[in-house]
Specification:
- It is a single chain.
- α5 links the parallel β8 (206-210) and β9.
- The chain starts with 7 loop residues before the first strand and ends with a strand.
- It is an alpha/beta fold and 420 residues long.
- It is 21% helix and 22% strand.
- Strands 3-2-4-1-7-8-9 form a seven-stranded mixed sheet, with helices on both faces. Strands 10-11-16-15 form a four-stranded antiparallel sheet, with no helix packed on it. A four-stranded antiparallel sheet has the order 14-13-17-19.
- It is globular.
- It contains six helices and 19 strands.
Length: 420
C-alpha cells in the first residue's frame, strides 16, 4: 500500500537544458488535475535568497513553472525555457496513488536546472556568475532556498514536508567526464546532508537519473560511448537503494536538433519519472530499469546477455527503426547491439530474444577482450524524430501515462560489458 510520509512531498528537478524544457514551445500541462504544488515568487527578485519573504506562496503546479527565460545561459529563477517533465511527473504519481488507495498524494516541485551547464554549475559550492543578462551557478543554492521556504509555508499550514526525490536530467555537457559517476554521488550526498538539515528527514532521498543519447555525434566513430551515459546506468548499480537509473530517453520524440525533446517527449519522460517515484518512494519497492545482469559465451561466435526485465516478456519495438542501416553496417542486424574488439567492429549475424536473455551471434569468432555494447555508438545518422544512438529492445510494462494516455514500456539502458 502507498506510504504517506509527508503531507507535501518535495521533488527537486535539476540538470541542464532537458530539465528546464528547452525547445518545448507548445505547453500542454497547463492545468493541475490533482493537488500538486510549486513555489511562486510573487514578484520577489532573487537572489538574494530570503525564504522568509512574505511574498512567497504555494500555487498549483502547472507549466510554465515560472515565466520563461529570454537569454542563454540563465540561472534560477529565469531558467525555464518551456514545458518541463514535472507537471506530468506529479500527475503520474497522484494518479497511481489514487488508483491504489483512493487518496491524494501531493508533491511540491522545485526546478533549478541550468541550460547547457555541466556538473560544476549544479553542485554545492558552485560560483555564481552574472554577465549582463546571463547567469550561472545557482542551482544548489536555489534548491535550499526553495526547501526552506516550502518548509516554512508547510509549518504555517500545519503540514509536514520532506523531499522524496532528486531528479537529474543531464549529462550532455559531461559526455567526456570520466569522473561523472563520482560527481553524481557527491551531488546526492550533499543534497541529502543539506536538505535533511532543513526538513529533519532521516531516510535517504532517492536520486532518479536518466541517460543522455545525443553527445558525442562523432560520425564513423568506432566507440561512441559517452562517459556520462554509461555512468548514469552504473551509478544505480553502485548505489542501490539511493540512486536509480530511470532508463534511456532514445524512445521519446525529439526536436529536429536530435538533442532536445518536444513537449510530448518531456511529458513522457515525466510520466516515467513519476512511475519510478511511485515504485521506489511511495511503495518502497526496489524498482530497476531494463538492464543487463550477466554476459556469457556460448561457443566461439555467440554471446548471451541476461537482463533484469521489469515486466516480461522482452520484445523488439518494430516501430523504432533499426540503427546502423547506412553506416557501421557491421551492426545492421544488431537492433542496437554492438560487438567490437578494440577499434575493430565485429559483424553481427543475428540477435534473438530467449526469455529474459538476448543471444547475439557474430559472423566471426569473438576474441578475448571484446566488448558488447547497446545503444552507445553514433554513426552520425539521426533516428527520424529521434536522437543519434538507440535500440529496439523493450519490456511489456502496461502502465499508461496519466497525461499523455500513452503506453510506457521500459527500454533497455545503453551499456557496455566485457566478454568473459
Amino acid at each position: 500500500m502507498p506510504r504517506f510520509t509527508w503531507n507535501w512531498a518535495g521533488v527537486i528537478g535539476t540538470g541542464q537544458s532537458l530539465s528546464v524544457g528547452a525547445q518545448a514551445n507548445i505547453l500542454t500541462a497547463t492545468t493541475q488535475p490533482y493537488q500538486n504544488l510549486k513555489l511562486a515568487l510573487g514578484g520577489l527578485v532573487v537572489p538574494p535568497f530570503d525564504p522568509e519573504n512574505p511574498a512567497l506562496t504555494l500555487v498549483p503546479l502547472v507549466e510554465l513553472i515560472r515565466p520563461g527565460a529570454s537569454t542563454y545561459p540563465s540561472a534560477y529563477p529565469q531558467n525555464i525555457y518551456g514545458e518541463t517533465p514535472h507537471t506530468a511527473m506529479a500527475s503520474q504519481i497522484s494518479a497511481l496513488v489514487q488508483q491504489a488507495s483512493g487518496q491524494d498524494y501531493v508533491t511540491v516541485h522545485s526546478v533549478v536546472g541550468e541550460n547547457g551547464q555541466g556538473m560544476p554549475f549544479l553542485s554545492k559550492g558552485a560560483t555564481e556568475t552574472v554577465a549582463g543578462a546571463t547567469s550561472t551557478g545557482r542551482a544548489f543554492a536555489a534548491t535550499l532556498f526553495e526547501a526552506r521556504a516550502i518548509q516554512r509555508l508547510a509549518t504555517t499550514a500545519n503540514k509536514t514536508y520532506g523531499v522524496g526525490a532528486i531528479v537529474i536530467t543531464h549529462g550532455e555537457s559531461d559526455a567526456g567526464n570520466t569522473n561523472y559517476e563520482a560527481d553524481l554521488i557527491r551531488l546526492w550526498t550533499d543534497y541529502n546532508q543539506d536538505i535533511a538539515a532543513i526538513t529533519g528527514q532521516v531516510d535517504p532521498i532517492q536520486m532518479i537519473v536518466s541517460q543522455q543519447h545525443s553527445v558525442p555525434f562523432a560520425a564513423g566513430a568506432t566507440s561512441g560511448a559517452s562517459a556520462s551515459t554509461l555512468a548514469q546506468w552504473r551509478v544505480g548499480l553502485s548505489r542501490p537503494g539511493e540512486i536509480v537509473c530511470s532508463g534511456p530517453k532514445y524512445q521519446y520524440p525529439y526536436a529536429v536538433d536530435g538533442v532536445h525533446l518536444v513537449t510530448l517527449g518531456y511529458d513522457l519522460l515525466g510520466e516515467k519519472y513519476g512511475q519510478i517515484y511511485y515504485e521506489r518512494v511511495v511503495l518502497g519497492r526496489d524498482w530497476q530499469p531494463l538492464q543487463p545482469t550477466t554476459l556469457r559465451r556460448e561457443g566461439t561466435q555467440t554471446v548471451i546477455v541476461d537482463f533484469h526485465v521489469p515486466v516480461p516478456p522482452l520484445v523488439w519495438d518494430e516501430v523504432i527503426p533499426r540503427p546502423h542501416q547506412t553506416a557501421l553496417t557491421e551492426w545492421a542486424e544488431g537492433r542496437g547491439f554492438e560487438v567490437r574488439s578494440g577499434n575493430n567492429r565485429i559483424a553481427i549475424e543475428s540477435v534473438a530474444i530467449d526469455g529474459d536473455s538476448v543471444e547475439i551471434t557474430c559472423a566471426t569468432e569473438i576474441p578475448a577482450g571484446a566488448v558488447v555494447g547497446y545503444a552507445v555508438t553514433s554513426d552520425g545518422t539521426q533516428m527520424p524524430t529521434g536522437t543519434t544512438r538507440w535500440g529496439q529492445l523493450r519490456d511489456s510494462d502496461p502502465v499508461v501515462g496519466a497525461t499523455t494516455a500513452t503506453a510506457q514500456p521500459n527500454y533497455s539502458v545503453a551499456f557496455e560489458l566485457a566478454v568473459p
